Amino acid sequence: MARFRESVYWGRPVPGFGDPRARLLVVGLAPAAHGGNRTGRVFTGDESGNWLYAALHRAGFANQPTSVSRDDGLRLDDTFVTAVARCAPPDNRPTPAEIATCRRHLVAELAALDRLRVVVVLGRIAHVGFLAAVRVSGVQLPRPVPQFRHGAEHPLAAGLTLLCSYHPSQQNTFTGRLTRPMLDAVFTRARALL
Question: One digit per residue, pLDDT tens: the chain, 194 residues?
Fold first, then answer.
């Protein structure tokens, strides 16, 4: 992209980040080619991140509403943000093989985040990837398996609640499929559950 031609890209797997004692986990799809892949921090430097961090700020989970670089001062409170894939996929669509390869990172984060109470998945692919990581972690999923639908709420094992939201991609936000009030409602519910 021409506006980033002078940028030095991170260009390697992008880790999750946030409060290591978080009770809220936000799971996205993958780093954007000119967002997280460029900045080295998931949901940073792209429009999806602008939507996400503004919503987290409005709900009291972030100290500022924007994130443009790894050293921009953003701090997450009681929140950790990650993705099911760690590298920018072609056409913003990670393959099942890519997600499976990256699953060990999400499983490790789930093990390390021992205070989790609420998980917000952003999109159907994040939903499926998160549930697969939960299965690998040895946690029994309820029957029937929780289905993705924006605004859905599913109780999981050990007092964990899964909330679903459409991904804040431009494809969803420009078309009105996801609006700010819709995203805010998800994080307002997350706050209430905590």
Answer: 555 456 565 566 788 999 999 999 999 987 765 566 667 789 887 889 999 999 999 999 999 999 988 889 999 999 999 999 887 777 777 888 889 988 999 999 999 999 999 999 999 999 999 999 999 988 888 889 999 999 999 999 878 999 999 999 999 999 999 999 999 999 999 999 99
Domain coordinates in residue numbering, the chain: 9-193
Query: Contact at 8 Å (CB) between 156 and 142?
Result: yes
pTM here is 0.93
At the second CATH level, the architecture of 9-193 is 3-Layer(aba) Sandwich (3.40)
Cα 43 to Cα 69: distance, rounded to the nearest angstrom:
10
